[in-house]
Inverse folding.
């Protein structure tokens, strides 16, 4: 073949079959070639179809399955991650809502306290005002009573000094009362 | 082909490499183990080493050898599927056997001192005939006598049909001839040309034309690369034609 040397080529001149034209057309060799070809092909076919090809096919199938499984698993993980994200978001929203509710509640509570304090203060103020008014009225009443007494006394004294005969304390008192009433 | 060098001593015997002879001596009988037998056996063993030993790990992440076996499997299966469709996949082991056997015979034939069984028309002829017969049997089993319509082109105008039918019949029966000769002749011619160049190189050295001997040497290097390509392509062509014939049998065009 390709790398045969000159010496090798020289030796080949002595080959017995060399002279008979194409070795391909040396029909004496055909039965042997065909017989062994049949043996080789049948053996190879049996080995390939019974062992090699089913094995390679199963290996390829297993690999495809494994890859599909891995993809499924990745999909599952992704779904779980998304679920966790959703849960986190939900918890966050809930917490925010709760915080807002607490704030609102506190605000309402404070408002209510302020309101009650205000009401109490108002009530106290009005109570005090009423008391003061009462006191003022009492003072005025007592003052008025004093005025009546002084007026009656004065009127009696005046009448006694001017008209001692006509002095009638009861009449004077009634007259003063009528005059002041 | 053979040319004479010094004193009538022949240097170039490009056909001697194709001589089939019993390796244990004696007269050749149908059961004789010949150099052809040995190289067929080596091919079968190499294929088994690749596809059976190489895949015995059944690894999910394949080793290098297992990758090659899987690549070969995928290549043949895809080619068959593309040409002959789903129904063709039933015959996958058959196609795979033929392709790997031819490929390994061709490639191992590139080794120095080796023998190329596929350079013999007896071998390629039997394989082509096996394909022809099995494909025809498949066709008749699937379509019955309706398969004869394969030779009766309905799309042609009426008067042309008998003529085309004759042509179709001839081309059908010529298939095994072209199928086998294409492979055998390619192998034969390539190896013979390599030998001619090698002989030329030897003659030039012997004749004292040392410097000029670089030319046939360069030619040999280029041809060797080409021959590797041819070794693969002819195996591929044999397989793809088998697939095409199978497709014709299964789907009638």
């Amino acid at each position: 073949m390709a790398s045969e040397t000159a010496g090798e080529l020289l030796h080949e001149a002595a080959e017995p079959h060399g002279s008979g034209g194409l070795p391909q057309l040396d029909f004496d060799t055909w039965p042997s070639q065909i017989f062994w070809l049949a043996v080789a092909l049948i053996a190879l076919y049996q080995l390939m179809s019974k062992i090699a090809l089913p094995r390679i096919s199963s290996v390829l199938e297993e690999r495809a399955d494994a890859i599909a499984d891995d993809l499924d698993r990745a999909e599952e993980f992704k779904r779980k991650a998304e679920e966790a994200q959703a849960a986190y978001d939900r918890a966050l929203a809930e917490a925010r809502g709760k915080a807002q509710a607490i704030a609102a509640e506190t605000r309402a509570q404070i408002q209510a306290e302020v309101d009650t304090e205000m009401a109490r203060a108002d009530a106290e103020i009005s109570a005090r005002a009423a008391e003061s008014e009462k006191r003022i009225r009492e003072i005025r009443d007592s003052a008025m009573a004093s005025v009546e007494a002084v007026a009656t006394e004065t009127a009696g004294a005046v009448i006694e000094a001017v008209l001692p005969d006509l002095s009638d304390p009861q009449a004077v008192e009634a007259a003063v009362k009528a005059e002041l009433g | 082909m053979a040319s004479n060098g010094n004193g009538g001593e022949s240097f170039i015997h490009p056909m001697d490499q194709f001589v089939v002879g019993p390796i244990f001596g004696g007269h050749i009988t149908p059961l004789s183990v010949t150099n052809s037998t040995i190289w067929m056996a080596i091919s079968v063993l190499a294929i088994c080493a690749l596809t059976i030993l190489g895949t015995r790990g059944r690894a999910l992440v394949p080793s290098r050898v297992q990758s090659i076996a899987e690549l070969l499997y995928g290549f043949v299966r895809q080619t068959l599927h593309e040409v002959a469709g789903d129904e063709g996949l039933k015959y996958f082991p058959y196609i795979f056997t033929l392709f790997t056997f031819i490929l390994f015979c061709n490639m191992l034939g590139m080794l120095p001192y080796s023998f190329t069984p596929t350079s013999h028309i007896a071998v390629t002829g039997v394989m082509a005939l096996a394909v022809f017969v099995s494909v025809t049997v498949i066709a008749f089993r699937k379509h019955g006598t309706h398969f004869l319509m394969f030779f009766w082109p309905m799309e042609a105008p009426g008067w042309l049909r008998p003529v085309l039918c004759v042509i179709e019949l001839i081309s059908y029966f010529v298939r095994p001839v072209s199928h086998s000769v294409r492979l055998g002749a390619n192998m034969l011619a390539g190896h013979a040309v390599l030998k001619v160049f090698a002989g030329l190189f030897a003659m030039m050295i012997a004749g004292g034309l040392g410097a000029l001997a670089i030319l046939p040497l360069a030619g040999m290097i280029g041809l060797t690369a080409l021959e590797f390509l041819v070794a693969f392509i002819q195996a591929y062509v044999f397989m793809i034609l088998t697939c095409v014939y199978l497709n014709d049998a299964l789907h009638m065009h």
